[in-house]
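Morning run. Coffee first, then this:
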Amino acid sequence: MRAISQDALGGPEVLKTVELDRPTPGPTEVLVRVHAAGVNPADWKTRAGGGHLGVPFVLGWDVSGVVEQVGLGTTIYQPGDEVFGMLRYPYGNGAYAEYVSAPARHFAPKPANLDHTQAAAIPLAALTAWQALVDTARLTEGQRVLVHAAAGGVGHFAVQIAKARGAYVIGTASAAKHDLLRDLGADELVDYRDEDFAEVVRDVDVVIDTIGGDYGPRSLRTLREGGTIVSLTLSLLDAGLHAQAAERGIRSAAMLVEPDHAAMKALAALAKAGKLRAELAAVLPLADAAKAHELGESGRTTGKIVLSVRQ
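And here it is:
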């Protein structure tokens, strides 16, 4: 099969098209013929730094495609089923390829109203937003949510998920992205270039910090007592920040996304109902993976980049 691999760490130029053996699904696994693969910041960070992987490796965690073969004991899918999902992060990589093999419950049925390109943009970023809001912060109707980098991959899904659950949503983003975010459901927007969100936002119940750095300490000033801040950059592993939050009566948590069959089905239901959509910044052929990384690393994209694997 055709895949994008690298045998060294470095810039986008290390990504090369190679021929690899097609994987074989093990017990409770499925072999998926990949139609599209999502591109995430984790991809280019891993390409440059290796993360938990040793070279050579095939990048990618977001998949949308068709089940080609099922492993022993797999009952929930059959060959021909259209599915989308996330390979185990940060280890189960390999989406930049014509086939992937993974546990069947890492996938959910693809909503019929989404094509593979749209579906491939959803899993990792939307699961991150869902697990931050629903599982970690335990968001309830009527609460106030502050989403940083609201027009980014995770951010624009967090806006939609929070709104679908009845929250009042505040987002930080440049002014050029405000119209899109209002269309996605944001109630209030702060242009971080002109305003300090920590001075103008108050009494929020949940903060989703996708940026890190000083955004964590500054965000504490926006939270009410009893609120929750969730860091998606692991910056909240800083014991000092945990202590600051505790002093203010604020719960702090740092999380990594994980495969989640139930959440994938919930996201599919939202997408089917028209309450969740991926904003696509670009769709490029698999062979242009390096260009996709260059675009993503520019920091100027809105939403998600997707690689079209089967055209």
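The first helix runs from residue 41 to 49. Good start to the day.
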